[in-house]
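Appendix B, record 7
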Amino acid sequence: MSHQTEAHQALLSMGRMCLEHDPDVFRSVLDRVGDKWSLILIGLLDTGSMRFTELLRSTPGISRRMLTLTLRNLERDGIVQRTIYPEMPPRVEYEVTAFGHTLADPVLGLARWAADNQNTIVANRRAFDEAAGDLGDDLD
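C-alpha cells (predicted):
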C-alpha cells in the first residue's frame, strides 16, 4: 500500500472514530493530549511524581497559571493524580495515573519525532518563508 493510500486510510479512520463517538469529547481529548504543555508534563511525570515547583522549573516558558490550569485539566481527565500530604507546610505531588501511563508511549514517541526532526522543520520553515517573501502581496 502506498504512503498516500495509508495516509488517506488513517484520515478516514479518524473521521469514523469521531463520528462513532461523541465528536465534542473526541476533539477535546485530542486538544488536551496535543497541547504542548500537556505533552511535556506527561513526559516529565511518566518517570515519577514531582512537586509543582519542580514541574515549574523543568518546563521552560510555562507560567504558574498555565501550569496550574494544565495540571488541573490533566487531573480532570484522569491522566494525572494530585496527592496532598498533611504536613506543615502542605506538600503536593503530581504523578501520571495508570490510565495516563497508557498515553506516555504515544506522547514520548511524538516528542522523539519532534526532537529528531527539528533541524529539518527549521530548514523547511526557512525555505517556505523565503519563497513566500518572493510572492510579495500576491496572497492577499
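Remarks on this record: Helices lie at 3-20, 23-34, 36-45, 52-58, 64-76, 98-116, 118-135. The mean pLDDT is 83.
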